[in-house]
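Morning. Coffee machine broken again, so started the prediction first thing and wrote up yesterday's gels while waiting. Chain of 216 residues, entered below exactly as on the submission form.
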Amino acid sequence: MSIETRSLSLKQILKIGFIACLTLFATPLKAGEEAAQSLSAILNHYQTLKGDFEQKTLDSTGKLVESTQGEIAFQRPDLFRWYTSKPTKQLILNQGNKLAIYDVDLEQVTYKNVDEQYGATPALLLSGNLDKLKQQYNIAVCPNSTDTCYQLLAKDDNDVFKRLTLLFKNDILNMMVIDNNLDQTTLIRFKNIDINAPLPHSLFALDLPAGVDVVQ
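Came back before lunch.
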């Protein structure tokens, strides 16, 4: 099954714990360290990121379950915004040690502490925190890929995410693929990505209308 057709909802991923196209091969320790440093160099160039995403969801049998689209924004060190506009509206904000999940149609916002269960979200990946990534994953360059491509294989067999793949075009994030331990896959395609443009702080603020239920 190709990476173009296999995916799992990021909304589901974030609530469990917010992208593998090629088989991970054994690499020497030196090569793995070089791959980690190379990936970190790309991600550390991102001070801000803003753009659009498209995502498809299939279950473990390959049946299409959901197709979503929306907007992503990131600002180093720890501001992250993931807004799903279709088919339902949901806003996910990571603000330091707190994660807010605002379901617009349900008029409900849920606050959670950011801990290890959110360790493989795009927020961590975009942060470029090499130490945290290396704690959880073995990092390697994708074999036989004509694009800049990295694979992250979970060190713990019980990790929610088994494998992650990041693909770049001219050092711009183009695609993220996540395989989880339920044999489901998330594929997220990014479009109209703008790197290091100034972003207003209000973009990462949560302005709730009156009457919204709050769940801590």
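The domain at 22-193 is CATH 2.50.20.10 (outer membrane lipoprotein receptor (LolB), chain A). Going to sketch it on the whiteboard this afternoon.
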